[in-house]
Amino acid sequence: MWKKFKKRIAKLHPLVRNFYFMGAVGFLxxxxxxxxNNLFNQYRRxxxxxxxxxxxxxxKQQIDVTEKAYKELSTNxxxxxxxxxxxxxxxxxxxxxxxxxxNPSLP
Length: 107
Hints:
The chain is mostly helical. The protein is about 75% helix and about 0% strand. The longest helix has about 35 residues, at about 40-75. It is rod-shaped and about 110 Å long.
């Protein structure tokens, strides 16, 4: 049995019989497919990182827009009046405000 096994191994390519080459192939297979930091996990983490960076850009833009609106609201009296009328339904003494609310159950 051992002789048959030796004959089969002798027929293989010399590179495949090399102990260091086989060790390197085994190590590469382990790192690509079986390790905690394998190729698939790295790809998934890269996608998550890209999504998080995109969210970061979005939130930075939103912060800039909000800061600009806050600055405008805190410095301009006309903007303050417009904001109070739109959000808090405030009115002047000589005005009437009618609020029309659409019923979501009706088309």
